[in-house]
Every structure is written in structure tokens, then in C-alpha cells.
Specification:
14 strands, 228 residues, 4-stranded antiparallel beta sheet, alpha/beta
Length: 228
Amino acid sequence: MPDRATILIIEDDDSLRRSLASTLKAAGYKPVEANGAKEGLRWFAHYQPDLILLDLGLPDGEGLDLIANLRATSAVPIIVLSARDAEKVKVAALDLGADDYVTKPCGVDELLARIRAGLRHGVQMRGAAPAIKAQDVEIDLAARVVRKAGAEIALSPKEYEVLAELALNAGKVVPHADLLKAVWGGGADVQYLRVYIGQLRAKLEAEPAAPRLIISDPGVGYRLNASE
């Protein structure tokens, strides 16, 4: 049985929320139920959950706004569980900082597997060094802040997630597939990843066309060069 990780369920459908809570409890987790955005924020502050299951269609707020609100202060893993399956909604949720997106209805085994993956990533983030330095760039994993030569650099949520994943494996090549799975749950292709790497290089490299911080291993992946 897994450790009793606390999972906050923010879902306004009473029947579905209770069913999810029962499933999670049977799987060895500690579920906390919230029927809307306001209650979700209140229980988040009170329980400090290890992971959040979030429905986007809430009666007292937009789920996408709630993701942005949570990401302003926390790196808690967020799995969106929504009936909305439009690609633009999925992209918006992931770009705002959601870790995964599951379309309802979803099988119990698949959902539990995604929760396990989210919890592993959360534990990895919490267990990492508070700040990782690579050349003149500092990635503060606790505060989700990136500085270059002491000056804070504004990154989008997904730019930060890509950089943080590289920082957690500084000096090692992270395969394309591993980056895509860690940051997008596998829901994007390599070209999408290349776009974000290009954006990061433009913001962090002295010479983006001749990168020395984020190094490509052609056909394999990317490496954060912390040796210089």
C-alpha cells in the first residue's frame, strides 16, 4: 500500500467526488473533499495536500484561474480531471502549470497510475536541493524563481517546469520522452519541446545560437550544463 499521501479533490459533482474519495481511500490515500474553488483554497491552506485532483467546471470560479492561483505560491502536483476535451483547454491548463490532464470518464487504474506519477514528481521536487546553480543561473525550486546574474527572469509556467526538470538532473542528459512525460504527461511532441527550449535559451543564454547552458544531445535529449 502507498504512504497515506493527502489528496485534495476539488469537484462540485457530489456523487463523483464521493466516489473518487472512496477509491482513493481504498487505495491507501487520505482524500480531502472540496465542492468548489473557495473551499478548495481553504482546504489547500489547511491540509497542505501532496496532490490535487481538480475539475475545471466549478460553480464559484474557473478552474484555470485556480491553477494560476495555486501556482503563484506552490509546486504541488495538480491533475486536472475534466469533461472538457478541447485541445486548447488542455494546452491552457498545462501551460498554467497543471502537471497532467485526464478527460472524464477515466478508468480507475489509469487515474491511480497518474496519481502515483504525480506524487513521485512531487516527492522528487521536495527532496531536491532548495536551489540549483548552473553557471550564472540559479533555479530556486522551493520558490519557483529563476535568476540570471542575480536578476530574476520571468518564465512561463511550462518554461519553468522544463528548466526545473533539467535542473533536477543537472549534468545528465534527459531524454526527450522523459521531459515530455514529466512536464506534459506525454501529451506533446518533440517539436513542442524544442519551442520551449528555444524560449529558455533566448532568456538565459549569453548566445542563444551557441548554447552553453542547455545543451542538445541530437536525437536523444537535453542536458543542463552546470560544470562551467
